[in-house]
Design a protein that fits this description.
elongated, 5 strands, about 120 residues, 2 helices, about 25% strand
């Protein structure tokens, strides 16, 4: 903060209301940067999944999606089917990581009412 002496209670953290306000404002700005970064990546992920999943059910090479800016670490929710497969979703578009013939792929699906 401002490096001023703090007087008063032993657990007091700020020298004045002004310093407290500045500190809270800066903390909120840092949190907003994180939220904007996550939101931006979710929008990119949704756009890429929508682009490649026109039929509602398709398989695609993982490298192709990653080259488009897709990041599988960012998703909004998940759904587990009866087999135990966990589909990760970005809003209404889902993906499942697969390995077919030694190649990394994603199975792309669209959210269905029965998944609720």
């Amino acid at each position: 903060m401002c490096e001023s002496n703090i007087s008063g209670r032993a657990d007091k953290k700020f020298c004045s209301d002004n310093c407290k306000s500045i500190s809270h404002y800066e903390h909120r700005r840092e949190n907003e940067k994180l939220y904007f970064k996550i939101d931006r990546q979710l929008k990119i992920n949704r756009k890429v999944l929508k682009k490649y999943n026109l039929s509602g059910y398709t398989t695609i090479n993982k490298a192709e999606l990653l080259a488009e800016g897709f990041n599988p670490k960012y998703f909004t929710h998940y759904w587990k089917n009866r087999k135990g497969d966990v589909y990760l979703f970005v809003y209404e578009f889902g993906f499942l990581s697969l390995r077919k013939n030694g190649k990394e792929k994603f199975l792309l699906i669209k959210w269905q009412d029965y998944m609720a």
